[in-house]
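Dear V.,

Thank you for sending over the compound details. I've combined the ligand you provided, pyridoxal-5'-phosphate, with the protein sequence from our construct and run the structure prediction for the complex. I'm sharing the raw inputs here so there's no ambiguity about protonation or stereochemistry in the SMILES, which I know was a concern on your side last time.
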Amino acid sequence: MPPSEFFSHLFCLLLTCNFLAVHSKMLKQFFAIHAQIGTTSSTAVDPLLELGKIAKSNSIWFHVDAAYAGSACICPEYRGYMNGVEEADSFNMNAHKWFLTNFDCSALWVKDRSALIQSLSTNPEYLKNKASQENLVVDYKDWQVPLGRRFRSLKLWMVLRLYGLEKLQAYIRNHIELAKLFEELVAQDKRFEIVTPRKFSLVCFRLRPPPSNEDYANKLNHDLLDSVNSTGKLFISHTLLSDRYILRFAVGAPLTEERHIVGAWKVLQDEAATLLSKC
Ligand SMILES: Cc1ncc(COP(=O)(O)O)c(C=O)c1O
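Below is the predicted structure of the protein with pyridoxal-5'-phosphate bound, written out as C-alpha cells.
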C-alpha cells in the first residue's frame, strides 16, 4: 500500500473512532447484541452469560433468540443452555417450531416494556377507553406496529392445557432420542461423518470427502441431498459451515417413530451407495 493511501486509511480510521466515541451513547441505541440458543443453521448455542455481561457493561440491548431450541428448555436437563438468560432484555421462542402449536405463534418476553411503549405507543381519541386509561388492561397495541392482533395465545394455551408439562417434556425428549439414534447410525458408517456436535434434534452430517478432494465433497453432498429428496420418502435440508456443504436431518414431526429414522437412514445409505459407485 503506498504511504499516501496508508495515511488516508489511518485518517479515516481515526475519524471513525472519534465519531464513534462522541456518538457512542447515541449509537448504542441503534445496536443490540443478539445471542442464539440454537442457531438456525446448526443449532449452536451462544455463551449467554459472557455476551450478556458485554451488553450490560456497554448499555446495549441484549436479545436472546431461542426460536427453535427454547422448547427443549422445558426439560431440566437442557435448561443449562439458558444460563445467563437473566441478563437478557428480551427473549423469544417460537411455539410453532417445536412446541406442537400451529403456525404462527411466537412468544416474546421483554424485561422492561417501557422501551416498546415509548417507541410504539399511539393514543388517538378514538382508541381511548376507561379500561386503558385506568391501567386495568395491558394494551398490546402499544407494544407493536399494528393496532390489532390475532388471539395466538389461545392456541398455545390449548397446547399447554391439553398436553401438560410432562407430556410436552416427553415429546421433546423423544425427538432428541430419535435424533441421537440417527446420529449413532451415521457415526457407525465410515463413509459419513458427523460435522457438529448434536445438541437437540438436528443432526449435521455429510458424506466424507474422497481422499484429498475436499472440493468434490460439496458436490457429492449436494447430489446426495437431491437424490434423497427426490425419492419422496424423506426430506432433508442443507447448510454451509465454513464453506462446507452440510446435510441436516431434523426430527420434529409429532408422528415420527424409530422405524421412520431407521427407514430414512436406509434411504440415505442406498442413495449414497449409488452415488459413490459412480465416482
Ligand atoms: C434461531 C431462529 N430464529 C428465528 C427464526 C425465524 O423464525 P420465524 O420466521 O418462524 O419467526 C428461525 C427459523 O428457523 C430460527 O431458527
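A first observation: The two ends are 46 Å apart (CA to CA).

Warm regards,
I. M.
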